[in-house]
Amino acid sequence: MAPKPSVTQVEIFGQTYSVRAAGDPAYIKELASFVDQKMREVSEHAPTVDAAKIAILTALNISDEFYQYRSKSGSEGDPGRVAKRATRLVEKLDEILKTSSRAIPARAGSESIGTLRGA
Q1: In this predicted model, what pLDDT tens digit does every residue of 64-92 receive, in sequence order?
Q2: pTM of the full predicted structure?
């Protein structure tokens, strides 16, 4: 069952907004803070004081950052690629840890190596 949407009050560029979302309110506030910061950065360099134009320029800047990140990470076209690779790496680490724990006898007072679980 999906979490029930809640309303979170956020402030972006001097305006208060009520955001209805199923996400964690702290996360919603973090996103709003990020957008507010980016809008303030744009407004320092933009000759306009029109908030709508600043919002559009900010959206373009954030989109540019996203596209650059996506192309550098090589995950374009497959957003789950990074998660799949991380899962494979965790499985390999599990295998290595199991092998090494059998090869090295445990000593009294030493900590045991647990199984690594990833996201």
Answers
A1: 999 888 888 765 556 677 677 777 777 77
A2: 0.60
